[in-house]
């Protein structure tokens, strides 16, 4: 039987829930969140507002941190349509991070051969009707859900749903766009609802999207690299550079470990000499969170 939902090797063959207790320890309560928002470094806060057309294609507006207090920003999120990522939880919320790493170790122990060499996290605060578009993460992910309810759609990691050339572009930061999405993919989605106290993992690189289910949601998204994921990301980067020079490297999904390792080593050398310049500009912000404004997004104040 082959129930793997991805063409990439790795210990996680399919999306699976695991229990955790982070929510029971008060990390997602209003007062705790307001305090976190009050002190969190503004450069580590991403405030996103997604819109969708009739075909389900997303467009993104981004917000500046603005001047709201932590309590005010929390209220704007709870009454708006915002998706707020607090990056660098490792340093931004050390107590939450320590608890999450304990929980991660328990989950990792259930997958023989899985060994994370680097973990990082973002605390996600999102409005009751917010949705995140179809994308993949160039890492393993454990999504610890702590408050509200959300629905995860996880898709197969095959060339149709996850084309390697598009992955290369994302890994090499040549596009802020995500991988291509079509409504036809929905027939292949695994749909999983998450309640507080549930964590979800899925196969490395598996495309996914998220819809909140009518409540303010709090989750900790932990991403992790293993040596195999590091090597493959390096190989994808090297392939992006080769492709930018008019070559047609073969896809990494047909490469064995020695070839992946060689391409990873090449990626380190390429990055040292400036390889590919990121084409993702530090873009202008479109709005500032505002309590009572449409979607929680008010005009930028000078
Ligand atoms: Fe993701």
From TrEMBL:
JmjC domain sequence ranges: 78-241
Top-level taxon of origin: Bacteria
Record SUPFAM superfamilies: Clavaminate synthase-like
Protein name, UniProt field: JmjC domain-containing protein
Taxonomic source organism: Brevundimonas variabilis
């Amino acid at each position: 039987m082959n129930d793997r939902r991805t063409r990439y090797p790795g210990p996680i063959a399919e999306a699976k829930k695991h229990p955790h207790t982070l929510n029971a320890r008060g990390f997602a309560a209003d007062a705790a969140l307001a305090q976190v928002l009050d002190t969190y470094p503004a450069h580590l806060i991403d405030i996103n507002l997604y819109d969708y057309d009739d075909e389900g294609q997303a467009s993104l507006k981004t917000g500046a941190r603005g001047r709201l207090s932590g309590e005010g920003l929390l209220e704007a999120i709870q009454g708006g349509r915002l998706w707020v990522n607090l990056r660098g939880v490792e340093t931004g919320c050390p107590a939450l991070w320590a608890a999450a790493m304990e929980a991660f170790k328990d989950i990792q122990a259930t997958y023989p051969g899985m060994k994370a060499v680097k973990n990082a996290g973002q605390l996600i605060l999102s409005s009751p009707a917010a949705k995140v578009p179809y994308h993949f993460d160039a890492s393993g992910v454990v999504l610890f859900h702590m408050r509200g309810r959300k629905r995860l759609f996880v898709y197969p990691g095959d060339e149709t749903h996850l084309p390697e050339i598009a992955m290369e572009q994302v890994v090499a930061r040549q596009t802020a766009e995500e991988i291509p999405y079509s409504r036809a993919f929905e027939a292949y989605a695994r749909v999983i609802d998450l309640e507080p106290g549930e964590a979800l993992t899925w196969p490395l690189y598996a495309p996914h999207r998220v819809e909140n289910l009518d409540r303010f949601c709090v989750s900790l998204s932990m991403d992790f690299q293993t040596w195999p994921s590091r090597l493959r990301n390096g190989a994808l980067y090297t392939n992006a550079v080769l492709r930018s020079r008019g070559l047609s490297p073969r896809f990494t999904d047909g490469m064995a470990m020695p070839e992946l390792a060689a391409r990873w080593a090449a990626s380190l050398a390429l990055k040292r000499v400036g390889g590919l310049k990121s084409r993702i500009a530090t873009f202008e912000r479109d709005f500032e969170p505002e309590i009572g404004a449409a979607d929680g997004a008010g005009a930028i104040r000078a």
